[in-house]
Design goal:
There is one protein chain. By secondary structure, the protein is α/β, with parallel strands linked by helices. 44% of the residues lie in helices and 19% in strands. It is built from seven helices and seven strands; from the N terminus they run ααβαβαβαββαβαβ. Helix 4 runs parallel beside helix 5. The chain is flat, with a radius of gyration of 24 Å.
Length: 207
Amino acid sequence: KGGISEERRKEVLKTAKKMGYQVNSVAQTLARKSINIGIIMPSLWQDYFASMKDGMIEEAEKLRTFKVSASFYYLSSDITEKEAEKALKWIKDGKIDAIIYCPSIYSMHEAFATAIKKSKIPVFIAGDSFDEIESVCEIMPDSILSGKIAADFLKCIKGNDIKAAVFTGSLSVKSHREKVMSFSERIKSFGGEISFLNETSDDGEKT
């Protein structure tokens, strides 16, 4: 800390090194304020988000000694202005310090994006890209690499003579678009071709 001379600072560091002193992170935590991370994810698509939630719970457990906790909030498939208000109230009442948002609904209600922005809390995006909310960073699978791996797998099975049919979700979604583009370019580099492309609209309420 400040308030001491440079000579004394060096003396303290030298003595600590000589004595083999190591910082006790738990002791440091006792003097640190607690951090509550709010994790917002959809109630739909649990075949995808359930494993993501399990991973987040596991990592949050490791941070418990550092006074870090995690709380979950589930959005319905229809983000209305009323639900946006409820989410903002949850953030405020829960004294949320940071938000991890896991997007799945790509036509977000403007009220929800506005509510998150008003909260002035750092936001991290996990699972996919989402342009409607400013974020500190995005943590997502490598869509371009995924497309290449799929093409390489087909080549191992069929050789270079590939005529592929592609079924994908909405191409308005960045990750879907990148996967198809990467897959298509890789197939063409082998001398193959995409003979059929079917784009669908995701519906989490239907199988």
